[in-house]
C-alpha cells in the first residue's frame, strides 16, 4: 500500500473535554462546530485555502471571534481535521484508507486551484491517479471506503474510476500479473505455481455486496471471461459472507436484534448472488446451488429466489453426488431437508418428461439420465430413512395413481421387511391390497413356522387386518385373510408337510434340494393365487375360497403325480 505525506510541522492538536485546540501563542479567532466537537482555530491559516470558509466569513458580522457550523461536511470531524492540519502545514499521512473522506471534505471546503495555487484537492487527485488507481489492493481498499460516502463518491467519479481500474486488472492475462494478491487455496504456493486464473476472486470478496455486484456486472458485460470464472467469484463471495448451515445448531443464539440484523444482511447477499449467476449451465456446481438453496431456507429468502435455485439445481441434478443432497433441515426435529430435495427432483421430472418426448433426443440419453437420478435418490433414501425423527409420511406420496402404487410395490421383497415395517404396511390404507396380503402371508409363515396352528391363523390375520384396532377390515381384505388361513391350513396338512415334520432330523442330515425347490414353487403358487383373488376382491367380486382350495388341491395332486412319474 502506498502513502503520501504532506507538511513538516509536528502535530500540536490537543483535546480538552469536547474541544479540539491547537497549541499556539496566538489566540483563537475561528470557532468551528462539527457534530458535537468544537475546533478553536485561526482565520489566517484556514480562510486563504478554503473557499467555503471565505464565503461564510463574508456573511457574518464583524466580530473578534467567528463561529461556523459544518455539521454536514462529508467524513465528519476526522476528515475536517485532516484538511485543517494541511492548512497549518502539520504533517499528515494519506493512503487508500483515508483518501476518500479527505478528498470529499476538501471538495466540500472548496480547497481548489481557484482559491489556492497548489491546492489540497490538486495534490489529492494526483495521489489518486498515480498511486491508488495503479495499485490492485489500493483500488479495492479505496472503493470499499466509498460505502460511507456513497453519494459524494458517486458524484465525484471515485466509484466509477476505482471499478474501471479493478476490472482492467482482472482482465489482464495471468502471466502478466505483477502485483500482490490474496490466494489462500489449500496447496497453493506463489513461489512454486504460476498465477491462477481466479487470482482476483478473494480480494474482491472483501467488498460490500453492491460494489461487488457492480464489478461482476462490468466483467460480464465484456464477455471476455468464461462463465465458470464468474461462478467461482460468486462461490468465494458466498463462502465469505453467508453462514455455513451445516455447522448451525438450534441451541446457538445471539441477541434477538443482532440475529435479525445479520439475517437481513445475509438474505440480501444471497438474493443478489443468485441474481448474478450466469445463465450458462455449469457456470456453478450443483453442490454450490444446493448449498445456496439450503441457506435460502435457513434465511427465509423470497419465494422467487428459492424457485430460481430449485430450477437451476434441477437442470444439473445429474451431476450431484450423495453428499451434495444430504444437507440439514432447519424445520422440525428431522436431520435432513428432504422437502427441498423432493422439490428439486419434481422440477427435474417435469423437464425430463418434456425432453423425453422430443424426437431430437436419443432414447439412450433419456434412459441414462433417469437411471443416474434413480440411483442417486435410492442411495439418498437409504441414508435419510435411518433418521429416527423422520416421519413416515415423508416417504409416502398421497397423489400417486393406483397403477403407480401397484408398480412401485411390486419391487418390494416382503421377506426382507423388518417387523416394524410389516406392522405399518398392514395398517397403511394407501398400499395396494395385494401388497398387504403378501406381507400378511410372510408374517404368518414366520409366526407359524410352516407348521400347524391353522385353526388360529384366521383369527390372527383378522386382528392384524384391523386398522388401528378401531375400524373393521375392508370386506375384500377380510375375505383374503380367511382364504389365506385356509391355504396355510391346507399347506400344513399335505402329506409332504407331514413327512417333512416327522423326518425333520433326517432331513437336516440328508437335505433334499428337489423337495426344497418344490416347496418354493408351492409358496410362489399360493402367493400368485392370493394376488389374483385379491385383485378380483378389490373389483367387487367375492373371494371363492373353495375355488382356490380346489385349484390348489388340483395343483398339489398334479405335482405329486408328476413326482411319481419321475
List keywords for this structure.
566 residues, mainly alpha, 5-stranded mixed β-sheet, 7 strands, disordered C terminus, SKP1/BTB/POZ_sf, BTB/POZ_dom
Description:
- This protein has 566 residues and is mainly alpha-helical.
- The chain is 58% helix and 5% strand.
- It has 26 helices and 7 strands.
- It has a 5-stranded mixed β-sheet. The chain has a two-stranded antiparallel ribbon with strand order 1-7.
- The longest helix has 26 residues, at 513-538.
- The radius of gyration is 40 Å and the shape is elongated.
- Residues 486-501 have a biased composition (Polar residues).
- Residues 28-96 form the BTB domain.
Mean pLDDT: 81
Number of helical elements = 26
Helix content: 55-70%
Spatial separation of the terminal alpha carbons? 99 Å
Low-confidence stretches: 251-255, 450-459, 465-471, 491-518, 538-566
Number of strands: 7
Oligomer: single chain
Q: β content, as a range?
A: under 5%
Q: Specify the structural class.
A: mainly alpha
**Judging from the principal axes of the Cα atoms, what is the shape?**
elongated
Over all CA atoms, what is the radius of gyration? Answer: 40 Å
Strand order of the largest sheet: 2-3-5-4-6
Q: Mind summarizing the main beta sheet? A: 5 strands, mixed
Amino acid at each position: 500500500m502506498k502513502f503520501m505525506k504532506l507538511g513538516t510541522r509536528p502535530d500540536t492538536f490537543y483535546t480538552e473535554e469536547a474541544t479540539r485546540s491547537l497549541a499556539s501563542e496566538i489566540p483563537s479567532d475561528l470557532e468551528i462546530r462539527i457534530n458535537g466537537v468544537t475546533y478553536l482555530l485561526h482565520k489566517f491559516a484556514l480562510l486563504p485555502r478554503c473557499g467555503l470558509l471565505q464565503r461564510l466569513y463574508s456573511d457574518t458580522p464583524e466580530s473578534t471571534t467567528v463561529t461556523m457550523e459544518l455539521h454536514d461536511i462529508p467524513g465528519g470531524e476526522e476528515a475536517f481535521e485532516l484538511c485543517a492540519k494541511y492548512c497549518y502545514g502539520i504533517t499528515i499521512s494519506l493512503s487508500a484508507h483515508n483518501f476518500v473522506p479527505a478528498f470529499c471534505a476538501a471538495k466540500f471546503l472548496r480547497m481548489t486551484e481557484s482559491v489556492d495555487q497548489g491546492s489540497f484537492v490538486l495534490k489529492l487527485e494526483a495521489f489518486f491517479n498515480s498511486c491508488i488507481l495503479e495499485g490492485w489492493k489500493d483500488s479495492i481498499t479505496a472503493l470499499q471506503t466509498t460505502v460511507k460516502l456513497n453519494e459524494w463518491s458517486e458524484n465525484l467519479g471515485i466509484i466509477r474510476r476505482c471499478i474501471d481500474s479493478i476490472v482492467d486488472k482482472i482482465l489482464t492475462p495471468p502471466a502478466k500479473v505483477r502485483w500482490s494478491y490474496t490466494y489462500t487455496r489449500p496447496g497453493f504456493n506463489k513461489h512454486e505455481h504460476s498465477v491462477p486464473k481466479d487470482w482476483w476472486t478473494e480480494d474482491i470478496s472483501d467488498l460490500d455486496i453492491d460494489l461487488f455486484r457492480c464489478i461482476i456486472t462490468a466483467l460480464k458485460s465484456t464477455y471476455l471471461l468464461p462463465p465458470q470464472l464468474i461462478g467461482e467469484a460468486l462461490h468465494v463471495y458466498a463462502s465469505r459472507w453467508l453462514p455455513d448451515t451445516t455447522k448451525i445448531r438450534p441451541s446457538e443464539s445471539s441477541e434477538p436484534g443482532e440475529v435479525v440484523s445479520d439475517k437481513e444482511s445475509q438474505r440480501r447477499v444471497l438474493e443478489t448472488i443468485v441474481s448474478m449467476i450466469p445463465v450458462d449451465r455449469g457456470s456453478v456446481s450443483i453442490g454450490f446451488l444446493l448449498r445456496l438453496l439450503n441457506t435460502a431456507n435457513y434465511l427465509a429468502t423470497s419465494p422467487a429466489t428459492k424457485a430460481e435455485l430449485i430450477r437451476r439445481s434441477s437442470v444439473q441434478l445429474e451431476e450431484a453426488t450423495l453428499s451434495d443432497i444430504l444437507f440439514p433441515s432447519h424445520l422440525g426435529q428431522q436431520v435432513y431437508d428432504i422437502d427441498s430435495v423432493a422439490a428439486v427432483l419434481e422440477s427435474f421430472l417435469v423437464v425430463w418428461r418434456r425432453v423425453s418426448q422430443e424426437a431430437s433426443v436419443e432414447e439412450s440419453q433419456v434412459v441414462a439420465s433417469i437411471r443416474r437420478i434413480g440411483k442417486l435418490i435410492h442411495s439418498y433414501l437409504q441414508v435419510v430413512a435411518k433418521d429416527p425423527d423422520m416421519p413416515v409420511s415423508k416417504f409416502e406420496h398421497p397423489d400417486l395413481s393406483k397403477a403407480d402404487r401397484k408398480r412401485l410395490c411390486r419391487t418390494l421383497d416382503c421377506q426382507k421387511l423388518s417387523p416394524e415395517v410389516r406392522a405399518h404396511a398392514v395398517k397403511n390404507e394407501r398400499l395396494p391390497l395385494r401388497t398387504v396380503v403378501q406381507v400378511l402371508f410372510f408374517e404368518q409363515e414366520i409366526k407359524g413356522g410352516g407348521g400347524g396352528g391353522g385353526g388360529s391363523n384366521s383369527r390372527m390375520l383378522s386382528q392384524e387386518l384391523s386398522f388401528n384396532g378401531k375400524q373393521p377390515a375392508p370386506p375384500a381384505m377380510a375375505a383374503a385373510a380367511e382364504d389365506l388361513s385356509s391355504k396355510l391350513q391346507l399347506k400344513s396338512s399335505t402329506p409332504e408337510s407331514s413327512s417333512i415334520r416327522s423326518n425333520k432330523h433326517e432331513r437336516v442330515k440328508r437335505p433334499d434340494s428337489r423337495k426344497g425347490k418344490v416347496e418354493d414353487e408351492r409358496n410362489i403358487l399360493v402367493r400368485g393365487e392370493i394376488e389374483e383373488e385379491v385383485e378380483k376382491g378389490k373389483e367387487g367380486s367375492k373371494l371363492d375360497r373353495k375355488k382356490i382350495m380346489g385349484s390348489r388341491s388340483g395343483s398339489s395332486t398334479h405335482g405329486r403325480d408328476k413326482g411319481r412319474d419321475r
